[in-house]
Specification:
11 strands, 4 helices
């Protein structure tokens, strides 16, 4: 009889321990909590630019409403760029960087995607590493120190917001080879910005269309 009681007690203990173990396993530990994924300023800017593109293409809004929304998005982009620039200028190592041109290849030709420089004057080269440069990409340059940009002959396109945010940029020389200048290419540059170009060139017509001061060379 005693032996039977011992077996029953042991069985109950095993069942009790199994229940306790199962309850403990179902309780999440602090390590199971995932931190929210942060979005970089660059990704935010790209999202805002995509919204501007959709607004430009939209036929549902009036011109005044479209312009109002685009200006609001541009102001947000400018704020993000300024915050990013302030963070970069706090690092003293940035002042010693040379001019650096990063690019991608399209059909064997270079598209400049990023320009790093603290110089006041920059010349966009006609070739890099033996590849012909045909385009300056979106947001390729955003600098508070650059005042003069010279685009070499042979380059065909300046993409959307290519030089947007270059607050000191006051002089841009654009050759006849440029046949496309994207929306907002010179947004938030110096008020005294002057485009140097040939008469009746694409750059000349672009400057006239956007009310930008130009100098016929």
């Amino acid at each position: 009889m005693k032996r039977k009681n011992i077996v029953i007690i042991v069985s109950l203990l095993i069942i009790l321990l199994t229940v306790i173990s199962a309850c403990t396993a179902s309780v999440p530990t602090p390590t199971q909590t995932e931190e929210p994924t942060s979005v970089s300023d660059t990704e935010k800017i790209q999202e805002l630019e995509e919204k501007i593109l959709l607004l430009v293409q939209s036929q549902e809004l009036s011109n005044s409403e479209r312009k109002k929304q685009i200006e609001a998005l541009e102001a947000e982009i400018k704020k993000l760029k300024e915050e990013s620039t302030q963070t970069q200028t706090q690092n003293p190592e940035e002042t010693s960087k040379p001019q650096i041109f990063k690019y991608t290849l399209e059909n064997g030709k270079a598209v400049i995607t990023s320009i790093t420089s603290n110089d006041e004057s920059i010349t966009i080269p006609s070739s890099i590493d033996g590849y012909q440069v045909i385009s300056v990409g979106s947001q390729a340059l955003s600098s508070n120190s650059v005042k003069t940009v010279i685009i070499s002959s042979g380059i065909e396109k300046l993409d959307w917001f290519a030089f947007s945010g270059c607050s000191s940029l006051s002089s841009v020389s654009i050759p006849d080879s440029v046949s496309s200048i994207g929306y907002g290419a010179f947004d938030n540059t110096a008020k005294a910005l002057t485009i140097h170009c040939s008469r009746d060139s694409f750059a000349h017509k672009y400057a006239q269309s956007y009310g930008i001061t130009y100098d016929i060379t």
